[in-house]
UniProtKB/TrEMBL annotation:
ABC transporter domain location: 101-168
A GO molecular-function annotation: ATP hydrolysis activity
Keyword presence, Methyltransferase: no
Domain of life per record: Eukaryota
InterPro entries xrefs: ABC_transporter-like_ATP-bd (IPR003439), FeS-cluster_ATPase_SufC (IPR010230), P-loop_NTPase (IPR027417)
Name of this protein: Abc transporter i family member 6
Gene (name only): ABCI6_1
Keyword tags: ATP-binding, Nucleotide-binding
Length: 204
């Protein structure tokens, strides 16, 4: 069954919550628009037939992750456009030390859309949580590079400000709080990271 394309992009929160939604999606914030705008832009999406699929089989003792490559795009797949690179990622549950992810390899370039697919319990959410720095998991081997930085050594808030975070697939409304308030908080958090002064609601 074909998956729907993700057409919306959420701004990163100032920090990640201590718990994560069980049904969630991983968003890669690729590019901010000019400082006076809350809009974000993504490269044009290619036809779905060109998308990558990361197939996750059941992560039992003998299971592994596999990647089905999409057609090569030489103008996209070069080191300059490398966005996320996961090599030999092995992860355990922090308390029990039970191994969950066993040698995951994944490369994503700017402009690509990847679909992570698998049965319930196959490790889709676990991989996402590990990438955003969930405290319940520990990386014991392998490397993760995001936008040229060592993701494993970054705190969850740093990853969020860099553009990698988790959010609800269907955001819920909070009575009494305007969307502009959330956007203002997220936008100013990004400006702080870039060393820029805070902007008030009227200025943005």
């Amino acid at each position: 069954m074909a998956l729907p394309l993700l057409c919306s992009l959420h701004t990163p929160p100032p920090s990640l919550p201590s718990s994560f939604p069980s049904s969630s999606s991983l968003h890669l914030l690729l590019k901010f628009s000019p400082p006076n705008s809350f809009k974000f832009t993504l490269p044009a999406l290619r036809p779905y037939s060109n998308h990558h699929r990361l197939s996750l089989s059941s992560l039992t003792a003998s299971a592994s992750l596999s990647v089905v490559d999409s057609p090569k795009s030489s103008h996209i797949q070069n080191e300059k456009n490398l966005l996320l690179e996961v090599k030999g990622l092995i992860t355990v549950i922090f308390e029990s030390k039970q191994q969950i992810l066993k040698g995951v390899n994944l490369i994503i370039y700017k402009g690509e859309v990847h679909a992570i697919m698998g049965k319930n319990g196959s490790g889709k959410s676990t991989l996402a949580k590990v990438l955003v720095g969930h405290p319940d998991y520990e990386v014991t081997r392998g490397s993760v590079v995001f936008k040229g930085e060592n993701l494993v050594e970054m705190e969850p808030e740093e990853r969020s400000l860099a553009g990698l975070f988790m959010s609800f697939q269907s955001p819920f409304a909070i009575l009494g709080v305007n969307n502009i308030d959330f956007l203002n908080m997220a936008y100013n958090a990004q400006r702080r990271k870039l060393g820029l002064p805070k902007l008030g609601p009227i200025e943005v």
